[in-house]
Amino acid sequence: MKFSWKIFVSTFLIVLLSLAAGGYFLVASSFSSSLNREIVSAGEENRMLQLMLAVNLSNSEDNGIGEDALIRDSLKNMDAGMGGSLILYRVSSGKKETIYENAGLSLRKIDAKKELIISLEENETGHAIRRYEELYLIQTASMLYFEEEAVYVETFRDVSELFRERTEQFDLFRKMILVVGSISGIVNFFMALWLTDPVMKLSGVTRRFAGGDLKARAKIRTEDEIGLLAEDFNDMADRIEADIEELTFTARRQEDFIGSFAHELKTPLTSIIGYADMLRSSQLDEEHRFLAASYIFTEGKRLEGLSLKLLDLMLLRNEEIVLKPVSAMLLLGEIERTMRPVLKKEEIRLKIKAEEGIFAGDKDLIETVLLNIVDNGRKAIDGGGTIVIIGKAEKGGYAFYVRDTGKGIPKEEIDRITEAFYMVDKSRSREKGGAGLGLAICQEIVTLHHGIMEFSSVLGEGTMVRIVLPYSRKEGQKK
């Protein structure tokens, strides 16, 4: 059963049962209250009749006709004096035999076995509800003594109208239940549809999302639990979409990595195989043989360098390093001594401005990072230029800024330059000995140091790299 139908059926039944129970209780309570009042009135009638009978009997003269005849005559005189009594009654002797009953109704069939007066005790009054044909009567019985003999007085009060009103009220209430139930059913049906509409919309969005529409989102703006569920679903969908995009991007990067790796291997291997085949199958003079061997040696060293860099990259991703205090001034001094001769040959000026500072790291690995970045700057510069290295003690750690005046990097490629084998200008990088692994290694090293590496570049003006490394514990305490 659908949720909307469950809501409809449950609310409809609750309303219907509540209405029926409430109506029944109301009618029954009203009837019971009215019946109790009638019982009280019937008791008063019985006491009044008993009193009148006692007075008449006390004023009657015994002419030797017997107690029963005396009582009968007294009651006839009393009825005649009242001009036709409105009270229906019956008087019985101590032997439970009927002495007199007033005209207008044959009361013999009502409680013919005299069960009510048989159950009476001395000075006690009892009552019972009796049905006679279409009539409902309250039978009230009491006892008095005449000439030391018990006399039973029974009165019968007609309450048929009360029972008829109850029947009419129940009939009216059943009609009211039918009308109200119908209206309630229609209202509940549309209310169930209204309440479950957000759930149906959310279900539809869920099916679309499961079918591959990762952009599907629930557009439900309510402040109830359904609205919160929709917000949670949208948050979950955002996260899943981001994860899938990340997985797709990672898979694409892996494909690019394999393709680039295969391409990087193809060129040197082709050269090695070609020159080796030439040496094997051709008679070469000394000069050409030396040239072929040199090509084989050069390409072999290139493959060796590529394999070592790949090994470094794999080792870095699984390595835990020991961080020690490193002096930034001493490190930059070694960078300058290493790179200045190389840069001088290509007419590139190297400027270093550094503040004293100590960061936590592996000196050799950080030196590798800075050398790679400076070397990338060298490759990006044609016909002379400048590379500036600035060291600054900042709040989050010691920062290195390396800026070159090279050709720059397109904005759309900035985010990919740390991928393995990715090269902005592939032909130029290979010409200057690059394989596209340098910045990937640098990124892994900086990550191992819990630092950050950021790039900013302008085409035609150059590139700046910012590296921030956390302070050593000793330096951090000084700060």
Describe the structure.
The protein is of the alpha+beta class and 479 residues long. 57% of the residues lie in helices and 18% in strands. It is built from 11 helices and 12 strands. It has helices at residues 3-59, 67-81, 115-118, 160-210, 225-281, 286-317, 328-345, 363-380, 426-431, 438-448, 473-478, and strands spanning 88-92, 98-101, 126-132, 135-146, 149-158, 324-327, 348-354, 358-361, 385-393, 398-404, 452-458, 462-469. The strands form 3 sheets. The protein has a 5-stranded antiparallel beta sheet with strand order 2-1-5-4-3. A 5-stranded mixed beta sheet has the order 7-9-10-12-11, with helices on one face. A hairpin with a 2-residue loop joins strand 4 (135-146) and strand 5. Helix 1 packs across helix 2 and helix 5 packs antiparallel against helix 6. The longest helix is centred in the first third of the chain and has 57 residues, at 3-59. It is rod-shaped. It starts with a helix and ends with a helix.
Beta-strand content: 15-25%
Determine the N-to-C terminus distance: 68 Å
What integer is the average pLDDT? 81
The gyration radius over C-alpha positions equals: 56 Å
Order of helices and strands: HHEEHEEEHHHEHEEHEEHHEEH
